[in-house]
Design brief:
The complex is a heterodimer of chains A (611) and B (351). By secondary structure, chain A is an alpha/beta fold. Chain A has 19 helices and 24 strands. Chain B has 351 residues and is α/β, with parallel strands linked by helices. The chains are: A alpha/beta (611), B alpha/beta (351). At the A-B interface, strand 9, helix 7, helix 9, helix 10 and strand 18 of A face strand 4, helix 3, helix 5, helix 11 and helix 12 of B.
């Protein structure tokens, strides 16, 4: 403790010891309740001040298939996924051979002693865990055995790694919301396993955890989907329609959890919101469009297959100019793809979603705090621009728990956009036109249904229309409308969140990197890896499409600009090329898609190769 | 009902106004672009009459529609109302969103048989299942007009059309579908029976929840042959009304007694519907009776009309189900929409 307080990050190792700088791979069986144990470990590490990342690799299955949870501890504060792991916790017989084979040299294997362990590696330390014996001794109801079995490895790890038992107890208490019975049940198993390990295991490996300071202070532990839900609530959402889909459902779970707490009217006890589970994604976006048209702050959440179904209404929202927000928590496509694996493969689809000349602003949150922020921004932009705004998160950010800066309470009031009041209509009478560009920014004024004036009404349609919202098939009306919509899109360039540019701390950059969303931690680490090789880079983190002048300038500044993204085709690369074709020579696509978050090692390697 | 005289520049004439002091003319819309004689236009005229007679405040009405001839028709009535001509078969979703966003609005949905019985059957049935408070009118002509004469899903088995040939599939019965989805107001009528359409419309506007009106509305261009069950001549010859409706608004006192064969249904807004049974065995509050009557009419190619099913108390409407604020969501001020800074701190403290 005293050493830890002296510097930050501050873990100092004794000769040969590895402190706060290794990964654990926990292999279990889906549906066995290991999420609780894994979450407890992650939380305990976080509360000990250790920079930590957890990636849940789960199957598209309710029970029985293998699942892995990979925890990375990084004293240096790197939060990206990393491939190698030093500690394997093996509780799944079907994957044990593979899980053990992949342990890094000098690593350890902690295994359920009922599993068949074939050839042992000489470079790895093996620790057995008598899981069934300990569970049996605990003497609990049969149906609870599987759940508490997963607490065995928590207790053994607590002994082996020196995890603070107080933090484990606090994490379990948090997990069970203070309910004494499950807390006691789980804690007693942790203690039992700890005591067994103390009595029976001799620690010979170098891995330890130690309390540290300097990184986790003022940070929160949150997943992107809950953060999106909270941002949406603080963004004043009043209408939500949705259809269940992995990995987006937990956005709505977050809404359903927090809306009743935060938005029940204290005077009437009634909900100041409405949430409807629709019959499909067509209807979900359709309801959002209807509500947005009527003047509500409306959103839905989905993933790729749902996005496909929403394309029809996306075109309507674009052309009839109705505010709407879609949170797209991306998973791998095409088709059903891998429902529980991450990807950034919807960028092109979302940008140009629906037939005809259509395009939509896209936002790319990079961490839970930004997911919260964009929950607000998306609703503001949708009403300001009177159009569909999509937020492209992904499974990695959405469903994994991240260390994140705290959410920032919004300083600006809600932006409700250009809505004519009754008084304004009384003054304007029939001279106002729904699609008249009176301000020159492409954004026109609308009225809400229910405005008590005969001149307020207009006819909304997805067909050709004039400035006055009457039906028209005249070529010039069509063309003028598209030109105005393009003018509006140019306005959007200035209104969407600007990119964040980070220049090298020393020297000039040899190359530029453009990336987006959840790749951020891997890019940060890759840049450090490159800098260690003497390669300085500049980094532009794109936060939205369409791009603004900063992005254009950035693309022109460097001889080589690497566009890093988690999809196969290099979709962002293609869009940037079409926006700035003159940069064709220097824009290099670094794209990969295999279901896993990108790693710093891979990114650094690709950039090195491309230089 | 008050009668006032206005100076129209012509010799003084009595101009009728409704209880809002408005003439019927202000309930009109743009001139119709549908074919001359189209059933949809006659339905539009019925809506104008009823809206005027009931004194509906047009600014508080929204007209929702999908795609097709029927879905164009909201442009031709009630020009002071907002309208949304959406996408094919998806009117129910847009209407649901609008109805929930602003619960003070009166929602009229106009759809067709392609829109409701084919591409949008799912949305139709789910809107019924949710009991979205709205008047849902299907202008049913058994044929696709704008795409020039293909069969719709309500076309009769064995029917022949010039363009489409022989229809070898049985029709979908919109009233049966609505009933199966637990609709609490189901009616069928005929565009050529203005009195009945108007009486049903009035009752529909007073209903709590969704009121489904399947109105046979002949397509004079593609499906008005004498042997078509969606033609004027078929309707005029074959229409068998199950009952005759008399709508009594809440502000009118009842002075008449009931005769034998009459029954009264108290509507949710205080109005009443007096039903004169034309079929003495038919009870429109009995759902099994309704199923049976519809199915036997379908089998025997009978054209039954009237109020087929009504139940004001069977189940709550969507507004009630959502347990949400009486203030329309769209009117909530910022302080009701955005929780406090302290609330955010409390949330984060527990993360």
């Amino acid at each position: 403790m005293s050493i830890a307080e002296q510097e930050a990050p501050s873990a100092v190792a004794k000769q040969g010891e590895v402190i706060n700088n290794f990964s654990l791979n926990i292999a279990t069986i889906n549906g066995s309740g290991s999420q609780t144990s894994n979450g407890v470990l992650l939380r305990a590490f976080f509360k000990m001040g250790i920079p930590v990342t957890g990636k849940n690799l789960f199957p598209s299955n309710i029970q029985g298939l293998p699942t892995w949870y990979i925890i990375r501890l990084s004293k240096d504060g790197y939060l990206a996924h990393r491939d190698p792991y030093e500690i394997a916790i093996c509780l799944n017989g079907r994957t044990v051979a593979e899980d053990m084979a992949k342990v890094a040299e000098g690593g350890i294997v902690l295994y359920d002693d009922s599993l068949p362990i074939a050839a042992r590696r000489p470079d790895v330390t093996y620790y057995p865990m008598p899981v069934s014996k300990l569970v049996k001794e605990a003497n609990v109801a049969f149906e609870l055995r599987d759940y508490i079995a997963n607490m065995v490895y928590v207790g053994v790890l607590a002994f082996l790694l020196d995890i603070d038992m107080g933090e484990i107890e606090a994490a379990i208490t948090w997990n069970f919301d203070g309910k004494p019975k499950p807390i006691e049940l789980n804690m007693s198993m942790v203690h039992r396993a700890y005591e067994w390990a103390q009595a029976n295991l001799t620690k010979t490996d170098p891995y330890h955890v130690q309390r540290m300071t300097g990184f986790n202070e003022d940070k929160i532990l949150a997943d992107g989907n809950t953060s999106a839900a909270l941002g949406t609530i603080f963004g004043g959402v009043s209408f939500v329609a949705w259809y269940p889909i992995t990995p987006a459902s937990s956005v709505v779970d977050g809404l359903s959890k927090y809306l009743p707490r935060l938005r029940t009217d204290p005077e009437t006890g009634k909900a100041n919101f409405a949430v409807i589970q629709a019959e499909d994604e067509l209807a979900a976006l359709g309801m959002v469009v209807g509500a947005g048209w009527a003047g509500a702050r409306a959103m839905t959440a989905t993933s790729g297959p749902g996005l496909d179904l929403m394309a029809e209404f996306a075109g309507l929202a674009y052309f009839a100019e109705v505010p709407a927000v879609i949170w797209d928590i991306q998973r791998i496509g095409p088709s059903t793809g891998l429902p529980t694996r991450t990807s950034q493969g919807d960028i092109s689809d979302a940008y140009f979603m629906s037939h005809g000349d259509t395009r939509h602003p896209l936002l790319f949150p990079a961490d839970p705090a930004e997911a919260f922020e964009f929950g607000i921004v998306a609703l503001d932009l949708a009403e300001r621009l009177q159009t569909l705004v999509l937020v492209l998160s992904d499974l990695d950010l959405g469903m994994n728990v991240w260390i994140s800066p705290k959410y920032q309470y919004p300083e600006a009031p809600l932006d409700r956009g250009k809505v004519l009041s009754l008084e304004q209509i009384q003054e304007l009478g029939h001279s106002w036109g729904r699609y008249k560009d009176v301000d020159g920014d492409g954004i026109t004024w609308r009225t809400l249904p229910g405005t008590r004036h005969p001149a307020a009404a207009y006819f909304t349609r997805g067909t050709g229309h004039t400035d006055m919202a009457t039906y028209s098939e005249r070529p010039e009306d069509w063309e003028n409308n598209l030109k105005r919509l393009r003018r509006k899109f140019e306005t959007a360039r200035k209104l969407v969140p600007a990119p964040v540019v980070d220049l090298p701390r020393s020297g000039t950059a040899q190359a530029g990197i453009i990336s987006l969303g959840s790749n951020h931690p891997a890019i940060v680490e890759a840049r450090d890896l490159l800098a260690q090789q003497g390669i300085e880079t500049a980094y532009l983190r794109l936060r939205a499409l369409p791009i603004n002048d900063t992005v254009r300038e950035f693309m022109h500044t460097y001889e080589r600009v690497f566009v890093v993204e988690n999809n196969f085709d290099g979709q962002l690369h293609e869009i940037l090329l079409s926006e700035e074709p003159v940069c064709g020579g220097q824009l290099i696509s670094v794209a990969r898609c295999n279901g896993m978050p990108l790693t710093a090692a891979w990114i650094a390697e690709q950039i090195q190769k491309g230089l | 009902m008050s009668v006032t005289t206005e100076n129209t520049g012509r010799p003084a004439a009595a101009v009728k106004t409704n209880h809002l002091g408005l003439e019927k003319a202000v309930y009109k819309g743009a001139p119709s672009t549908l074919c001359k004689g189209c059933g949809h236009d006659t339905i539009g005229q019925r809506i104008i009459n009823v809206a005027w007679e009931l004194g509906l405040d047009q600014t508080q009405v929204v007209k929702m529609s999908g795609i097709g001839c029927s879905s164009k028709s909201p442009a031709y009535f009630m020009g002071w109302s907002h309208a949304f001509n959406g996408v094919h078969g998806r009117m129910p979703a847009i209407a649901t969103g609008a109805a929930v966003a602003n619960r003070d609005l009166t929602v009229i949905g106009i759809s067709g048989d392609g829109d409701t019985a084919s591409i949008g059957t799912g949305q139709f049935k789910h809107a019924v299942r949710r009991n979205v408070p709205m008047v849902y009118i299907v202008e049913n002509n058994g044929v696709y007009g704008l795409t020039k004469g293909q069969f719709s899903a309500t076309a009769d088995l064995g029917q022949r059309l010039k363009y489409a040939g022989l229809n070898n599939l049985p029709p979908l019965d919109i009233c049966l579908e609505a009933l199966a989805a637990n609709a609490t107001f189901v009616a069928r009528s005929f565009a050529g029976d203005p009195r009945q359409v108007e009486a049903l419309l009035k009752a529909a506007f007073s209903h709590r929840g969704i009121a489904v009106l399947d109105i046979i509305s002949p397509c004079v261009t593609f499906n008005n042959h004498d042997d078509s069950t969606k033609s004027y001549s078929w309707g005029k010859q074959k229409e068998t009304a199950l009952n005759e409706l008399n709508f009594i608004p809440p502000y009118e006192e009842i002075t008449v007694g009931y005769y034998e064969g009459e029954m009264e249904v108290a509507m949710h807004d205080g109005s009443r519907v007096v039903l004169k049974k034309l079929d003495p065995d038919y009870d429109p509050t009995n759902k099994l009776n309704a199923f049976q009557t519809l199915e036997s009419a379908r089998q025997n190619q009978q054209f039954i009309t009237g109020l087929i099913y009504i139940n004001q108390e069977e189940r709550p409407d969507l507004h009630e189900l959502l347990h949400y604020t009486e203030t329309p969501l769209v009117h909530l001020p910022e302080e009701k929409l955005r929780p406090s800074r302290q609330a955010l701190e409390e949330v984060m403290a527990k993360l």
